[in-house]
Every structure is written in C-alpha cells, then in structure tokens.
Amino acid sequence: QAQLVESGGGLVQPGGSLRLSCAASAFIFRFSDMGWYRQAPGKQRDLVARIRRDGVTNYADSVKGRFTVSRDNAKNTLYLQMNNLKPEDTAVYYCNTDPQILPWGQGTQVTVSS
Question: What CA–CA distance (Å, rounded) separates 69 from 19?
C-alpha cells in the first residue's frame, strides 16, 4: 500500500493557480514534519516547502510569497497552494517527510505554459 499519494497537478498558464494534495499514512503523518519537493527535467529534486508538526512553515526563496503549504492532521493530508505560477515551476511535485525517509510516491506533474 502506497504511503504517499500526490494529486492535483495539471497544465496551467503563467499566473495561474493549482492546489496539490498528498494523502499520507496516518502513523507517518502524525509524527512527522512534512515537505513538498519538486524535480524538473535534468535537475535534482529539491525541497520547496516544509511544515512542521506544529504548523511552522518554511519556503525556498524561489516560491516564497507564491506557495503556501498546509496540513490537515485529521485527514492525514498535506496541501500546497501554488499561486502566480511561472514556467520555471514546471516539475514533478512530490511530498515526503522532512527529512525524506519514505520511498517516493508517483508524484504529480505540474506544467506551466502558455
């Protein structure tokens, strides 16, 4: 059974918005700081947003002010609200613990293009 299932990606025009979701196993989610990572073609996978169990958040400079990470501990779900999307945000987005300890899920593709 998959421990992390991402969804919500798609094709969006520059300036548009998307909301990603990540369903996680209850045990892992409850006791873990969580993060959203992304990997563009030919590049390494990078952490772009993290949220601690207590709700404190941090963002990569490249997404600060545009992305918002949140978590619903009752639903064991992690979210990433992405606004004012740019072509350079195009990537496969993954969720995982922070630091990453679980196998990667399938990710969800986000493509920003006109």
Answer: 10
